[in-house]
Amino acid sequence: VPFFIEEFLRSFKDLEIIKKEDNKFYIAKDVQDVTIPSTIQDVIMARVDSLPEGTKEVLQTGSVIEREFEYELIKRVTGLSEQELLSHLAVLRDSELLYERGIYPQSTYIFKHALTREVVHDSILTRRKKKLHEEIGNTIEEINKENLDEHYGVLAEHYINSENYMKGADYSIKAGDKAAAVSAWQGAKQQFETALDLLSEEDLQKKADVLQKLANVTNWKSEFETSLHYTELAIELYEKLNDKRNLFTMHMFANMLYIAPHWDGGREQEALKHMEAAAAIAEEDPDSQEKGLIYQRTSHIYLHQGEPDQTLIWAQKAVDLFTRLNIPMGTSWGTAMTYTGQIDEGIAYNENNCEQALKTANLFILGLAGHELVLTLALIRDIP
């Protein structure tokens, strides 16, 4: 039976317009005096309005929670006694507006139809609805302290609808982090974008951090232009905040995006700009293998750009740093030497690096050294 017809006939039964006798229905009132609802929404509201006031309020509260809600939650939100609440729920169950699932007191109540919940929800005054959303959010926090992570998304919705945007943003971020942790990139993106819209202009740190999260998520979704957009916005905010740690991270991330294979080398100039910015920040830090790799990556980009002089400058910085750290790391120095015509010196440098790398048994170091030797030998074919 279509939902409209079912609800229409049920409303007639509730209003005692039709009655059942001897297993047959008959009209008990003059239908000329009956106002026939013109829409399904009107039919539903006619049934709801015929309920006792207390029962109607319980139904409205349930509609603000979700289509499905637990007994314990609605009990705490309404503040009703056990006997009074069960009485109201029994009326709603008997009228088939709600279904009951589970065994009391672990019962769960479900709106029979999503449209019923929607109509009831829309009938509540805005001010009361906002207050209910806040109370529901607070109650969910209170009764789910041990497993709050299972409710991040729902909590975000309730606090947003209550116009508590600060808590709404916080839970949206947590829901996004949870989604990203299981590679649910689209869900994570939606949650982070919601949080970004909610955060105030004064909350620069949180906005910058959310932009960083969006840059990562959209990169995983292969939305590279979008990822670059969020990356550049994050860099702008981290510069305002003088947050050098995150600024360094985002410059390195931007470099990675710009040198990615899908650009086919067409955006190396932008990559170089971010690499040099990261290197400038790293200058202030103590010597480390990571710092040396930044110098090496910068020299390698210059090598791709066909600028051997700049390649030598940055490669020499990497060589000096790795020497101070006593790390046999391959760099673009030998390749750049070969590029400028100093073939013997370039080959000798890279061959020596490979020998030292073999002794370390470190596959990363060996791979980098071998890569530079291969590049050097390949260049020889093109040098007169």
UniProtKB/TrEMBL annotation:
<keyword id="KW-0547">Nucleotide-binding</keyword>
<dbReference type="InterPro" id="IPR011990">
    <property type="entry name" value="TPR-like_helical_dom_sf"/>
</dbReference>
<keyword id="KW-0067">ATP-binding</keyword>
<dbReference type="GO" id="GO:0005524">
    <property type="term" value="F:ATP binding"/>
</dbReference>
<dbReference type="GO" id="GO:0005737">
    <property type="term" value="C:cytoplasm"/>
</dbReference>
<dbReference type="GO" id="GO:0004016">
    <property type="term" value="F:adenylate cyclase activity"/>
</dbReference>
<protein>
    <recommendedName>
        <fullName>MalT-like TPR region domain-containing protein</fullName>
    </recommendedName>
</protein>
